[in-house]
Model the fold of this input.
Amino acid sequence: MKINRFVENPLITPDDVKPYHQGFEVIGAFNAGVAFYKGETLLLLRVAERPISETPNIIKVPLLKNGELTLLEIERDDPRYDFSDPRIIHEVGSEADFIYLTSLSYIRIARSRDGHRFTIDESPFLYPFNEFQNFGIEDARCTQIGDENYYINFTSVSEMGIIESLVKTTDFESFEDMGNIFLPDNKDILIFPEKINNRYYALSRPVSSSLDRKDIWISKSSDLKAWGEHRHLLNTSKDDWDNGRVGGGLVPIRTEKGWLEIYHGATKNNVYCMGALLLDLDDPTKVLAKSKAPLMMPEMPYEKEGFFGEVVFACGGIVNGDKLTLYYGVADRSMAACELSISEILSQLESELE
Amino acid sequence: MKINRFVENPLITPDDVKPYHQGFEVIGAFNAGVAFYKGETLLLLRVAERPISETPNIIKVPLLKNGELTLLEIERDDPRYDFSDPRIIHEVGSEADFIYLTSLSYIRIARSRDGHRFTIDESPFLYPFNEFQNFGIEDARCTQIGDENYYINFTSVSEMGIIESLVKTTDFESFEDMGNIFLPDNKDILIFPEKINNRYYALSRPVSSSLDRKDIWISKSSDLKAWGEHRHLLNTSKDDWDNGRVGGGLVPIRTEKGWLEIYHGATKNNVYCMGALLLDLDDPTKVLAKSKAPLMMPEMPYEKEGFFGEVVFACGGIVNGDKLTLYYGVADRSMAACELSISEILSQLESELE
Done:
């Protein structure tokens, strides 16, 4: 697979983003959903900000409550907590993966005419606006349906769990809240860009803790707000690049061969790669083909080293004829981009079938 | 709270049920959904059958695949497996709670004119009919909407996870499949018996493994098949009878004071009790009151001892004026029943508010 990484990579780093909160530092500008709006490429950046601690032994935890931001101070040698994963604070002995996140994420827009040089908005576009988002909002995906309507779904995190929420915008300034669309724990929702046989479709990645599954499912809707007729779509593999978890990446792309889904897979050791999935045009619950080898894996220094290394994680792209420009988060820290040929991806999927 | 347990209790035990599968024994007839149909009380029994093993050291595991029942044989001293919970087989070292169930559950109807003496159908009403049900179907609930339509939801278990499925019947002989209505892991779905402000509502009990939550949520629908606008409804308590998990029990009952939901709570040690919840009539996402003490807890020998002891677990009831006849599973083994006064439950909820 020929991957033309942009020479400007990384395109956007935390250093390019001015903190929105006083006394905070930006530690991530990554995992952006992508929209094309009025001649501009918009990156719906996940900006992660962390309170600056004056004392090395104190970690400050950002928490929202009734829209108010508060800081909780925890001592790093407090034996009740485990700080080994930089993204989270784990309570020792708890069954929960985490009790707090170490940063607060929200969605901020970066805009570009040429798709290479971006200007970042001064303030957030989507900032946590209800109690389901008290720990932050993450990893937006944007589906354009028709000429004017853009649907943005994102992960809402709070002490109640990890769920998926949906808003609609026509101008990327204001938005209409369409509610929580998937129950805990779920993330990586990708809404298809058109109705198929009069129904909307979406991919999602629910977690079955009972059976230890992190697979992709597919669901149907009449109104984008309520989802049902859920079916299992894709397993993790047994011993391959996607044996730890799989999840949707980009909004599915209509091609002659089928719906092309660029998705992520991670090993049990959290190396995140991108692969491809081909779904039947008339019935996307049918998988026609799946990448045996990843399309793309962490290779460049900015992909291998960062806040949480060995991660390429695309949430959006721009299609122009055969050219797919993939905008992808790297190492839970920055944004990068690359170009791929859609026909080449389809050929590889076909060749692997033989 | 005055609880009049039936003198006939337990009403139905495994000994009353003829196995459907040759070479199997019935080990449970419990957790029945309840319907009133053509003058009869119907119990939609969860019947659990286990393959009889001729050799004490061999455990036989029932598995469905493409509708075919197969038996897997595992040696009890196989160090790869843990058999300490009689309901499941755990794979040592796995993050999953279980790899197999020790019995296969399906739904079979028991019918009664007087609500006390039941005749059990010879064959199943709902038997696993798709790949999401390869480990069995469990814990039906039945919501009558209008005069003729009965909607039955139940838990579908397979290697893909624990999900909730829905069928519709008008005759309790045939049914229409309405698909999977909630993604893994979810169970204890209770559909309200009428639309409220033109929307259907349902309770559910999704699992957040990330945050270790087993709480009740509430969702909306236009067609009963697709659900959205999810909101959190009820936490587990901190240190009380329901500190381990909570989940809906009966179809919510319309009263003058609000929607009365009889739900279950369990301690972290798996003692299952029943409590009451009162929800706003016009907006059931609002909790008006909740039992401080359980309405009912395991007290009788048939409630305390069984396949999995210390469990009262009601999935349905019959309302007649102020009288609520609760049909409830006991010790994951049998069915029992009792009568409660609805006004007394409401008074207790009110008194606890003061």
